[in-house]
Amino acid sequence: MAPEQTRGEVGSRLTSFLWTFACGAAAGLLILFLLQQAGLAAPWVDLGFLALGFAAAVVVAVLARRLGPGPWQVPAVFRGLALATDTISAPFFLGLTGAVFTWGHDGLAFALGLGAGYLLLQLVIAPVLPRMGAGSLPEFFALRYGGRAPRWLAMLIVALSMATLLVAQLMAAGLVAARLLELQFGGAIAIAGVALFATFALRGLAKTVSVRAILFPMMLVAFLAPVIQLSAEWYGLPVPQLAYANALWQIQGLEETLLEQDLADPAVLKPMLTAFLSLNPLNVFGLVLGLAVGMASLPHVLSRHVMIPSVRAARWSAVWALAFAALFLSAAPALAAYAKLALLKLIAGHTALADLPAWIFTYGSLGLLEICGRAATDVAAVVHACAAVPGAGSILRLQDMTLQPDMIALAAPEITGLGQTMFGFLAAAGLAAALVTADGPLFAIVGALCPRPDPQKTAARWARFAPYGIGGAAVLIAGLVAATRPAAMLTVATWAFTLAACGLFPALLAGLWWRRANAPGAAAAMIAGLAVSLFYLLGTRYFAVAFFETWQALSSAGQTARETFAELKQTWMAAVPGPGKNAAWMALDAHAQTIANWWGIKNLATALLALPAGVVTVMAVSLLTPKGQSSQP
Amino acid sequence: MSTNSDPSHNAPFRRPRLPVVALLLWALFVFAVPRFAQPLNVADVFAFPLGFFMAAQGSLIALLVIAILSARRQGRIDAAGAEDQ
Question: Would you tell me which of A15, A149, A248, A318 could form a disulfide with A523, CB atoms 3.0–4.6 Å apart?
């Protein structure tokens, strides 16, 4: 293979890859559709879709290997598609719909934050970073600031934030595997982890990224097909971005009907069209800020999509990525609205608990859907659970249902009554996206922790396998965390973006645009940003009780919530050690997580606290210490 | 490693300037407009309440327009800079 291929050659090879891939995916889909029509049992068809998703990821890995190591001139469209694949990635692909479904209007903040990230990348990072000649973020910090501290801190932050993102990716892959194999989450995560490591090992360590461009059309088709079909069937307008306005108004009407008929509790029902019911404006601001800035500082995005090409190419790949991503970001609320409408119709139809549709039990068995406080595994369990809830009769009510945001996108085709093929293709695309895009964070971790082999020396045997060892360890640790389901996968992904944003962005921004910034300033900013964001994220999630007790004065909790906390604490203190005490602790901790905060800032909006800390620190410390020698762009 | 040669070798190097106008427009559509979703919802566009429309798609469209215009403008500035040398 010629080391340097021209733009046209690479473009035509990628185009042929794209067509081969598309034809293969379409053929697989057709075969599975025909098998299903021919009467093959549903679990076998599901297994087929799992194989389709895995095969897609393997094909991307193999083609990446065939294209060989870069760098070449890749057409901007392919660069944009690859960037869109890497950034939308599986947690957002499968999670965004659930966010809008669950948080209504406020869930749109996730889509907006991602969209804003592409433009920020283009305006602030792309004009300067490619000129620095660095290959990765730690390398950039070493080149720009000199000294060891900025580089080591950057490695640490890269590893931490990317491990968190890997957790979210594994949760997405595990979710699909759990649903298609009808497995429990832990086992599904294990399978997903093995599949992920297999594609990682297959792909090798070359820095080829443009091949993943071929995956984004599959993701788009898989996501848009159900939305377009529903738009056409329900409203005669196959443009989901316009058609779902009708669904929104129908939802508003149904919400009122449910309240009138006593099928919904006004305290639980949050009208979808009303803003700031789930997240107040401050939190929306912080969430959008964290996602946008996070995208502009994601290590794998910067090293693969911004550092290699020229300034011009980096700029235009961000433009194309925004264009392609916007197609998805604007369609996700439509799917959320359709799923919500179908669910509200189900409740408004006075559905008896004995006549619940099958999808409820499918997701109930996976532990993602609860009715009357119990996992809805079958009719008997639901009826039994609801008998214990005062007011719950034999009719399904809105407040009795708890749907995890993670399940919504996958379940939407079933909730809205579409066929198994639509669902299966979406699941396959989600799995492929998870397996392919997880190698972004994985490579970033390996790159940060693994010393780059010296090309002059013949590397020792262990050095060649070290990247795989580190990668395997990272997958193992992330899998163990993912199996505990720390939060919705979208939330976990947002934490990862927040860590990258708060730890890296202030020092990155100053390094690119402020001559006076020096090594002590950058190091201090990274420490400050990382410390504040880690403290707040871990404190409010894992040490909520202690966090609340320490910072009671700053919490936004109302009088009732504080009294509830005191009562729960009493119950826990009084309980005898054993299962009872554990249950009391769980209740106390769950309640504490809702009120452990400073000024009402949720941990999704941590950027609001940590980003200013980093910016102020880099300015103050840089000005207070002597001017550093630096290779300025 | 990157294909770019070390920047210090490219003699007189024109330092790029922050696209301030584009950044202000970015902040307007990303932070200011969604903040006023509730009052905007009084108006309708394409049968959507305006506040919802802006948060769901309007701001994304605006971001894309800003991105394209800014990328073209920056391209022209770079080209002019290259001619100067």
Answer: A149
Alpha carbon distance A459, A348 (integer Å)? 68
Mean predicted lDDT score pLDDT of chain A = 92
Query: Which residues in chain B touch residue A131, judged by CB atoms under 8 angstroms apart?
Result: 4, 7, 13
User: How far does the CA of residue B60 sit from the closest CA of chain A (Å)?
Assistant: 6
Query: What order do you get walking across the sheet with A369-371 strand by strand?
Result: A374-375, A369-371, A401-403
For residue A236, pLDDT beyond 50: yes
Residue A206 pLDDT:
66
Find out whether A45 and A175 touch, Cβ atoms under 8 Å. no
Decide: residue A489, CB within 10 A, 0-12 exposed, 13-18 middle, 19+ buried: buried
Give A98-101 contacts, CB < 8 A, sequence gap 24+: A98/A336, A98/A404, A98/A405, A98/A406, A98/A407, A98/A408, A98/A409, A98/A488, A98/A490, A99/A336, A99/A405, A99/A488, A99/A490, A100/A332, A100/A333, A100/A336, A100/A337, A101/A336, A101/A339, A101/A340, A101/A403, A101/A405, A101/A408
| Residue of B2, B6, B78 lying closest to A135 (CB–CB) | B2
Q: With an 8 Å Cβ cutoff, are B67 and A311 in contact?
A: no
pLDDT band at B11 (very low <50, low <70, confident <90, very high): very low
Considering only the beta carbons, identify the residue of A292, A310, A319 that sits closest to B71. A319
Domain ranges (residues) in chain A: 7-351+396-449+460-488
User: Chain B residue with minimal CA distance to A247?
Assistant: B48
Tokens 């214990």, located at residue: A388
Convert the pLDDT of each residue in B23-81 to its tens digit. 999 999 999 999 999 999 999 999 999 999 999 999 999 999 999 999 999 999 888 87
Q: Is the model's pLDDT at A574 over the cut of 60? A: yes
CA closest to A125 among chain B residues: B18
Interface of A with B in 581-600 (CB under 8 A): none
With H, G, I as helix, E, B as strand and everything else as coil, classify residue A371: strand
Architecture of domain A7-351+396-449+460-488: Up-down Bundle (1.20)
- Which A positions 242-281 lie with beta carbon below 8 A of chain B? 242, 245-246, 248-249, 273-276, 281
* Range in A388-392, A469-473, A618-622 with the lowest mean pLDDT: A388-392
Residue type present at position A144: R
If you average pLDDT over residues A281-295, what whole number do you get?
97
Residue A589 CB contacts under 8 Å (≥ 6 apart), including other chains: A544, A545
* CB nearest A133 (choices: B4, B55, B59): B4
So what's the pLDDT on residue A372?
A: 92
* pTM of the model as a whole: 0.94
| Average confidence (pLDDT) over A438-444 | 90
CB-based contact A118 B41, cutoff 8 Å? no
Q: Which helix (H) or strand (E) holds A13?
A: helix A7-37
**Cβ count within 10 A of residue A90:** 28
CA distance A279 to A413: 27
pLDDT digits (tens, 9 = 90+) for A262-285: 999 988 899 999 999 999 999 999
CA distance A13 to chain B (A): 21
Mean pLDDT of all residues in A285-301: 96
As a whole number of angstroms, the distance between CA A417 and CA A172 comes to 23
Of the candidates A205, A219, A250, the one whose C-alpha atom is nearest the C-alpha of residue A329 is A219
φ, ψ at A371 (rounded to 5°): -125, 130
Residue A177 or residue A305, greater confidence: A177
Q: Quick: pLDDT tens for A146-198.
A: 888 999 999 999 999 999 999 999 999 999 999 999 999 999 999 999 999 99
B contact test, residue of A108, A312, A329 with most B CBs within 10 A: A108
CB A201 within 8 A of CB A468: yes
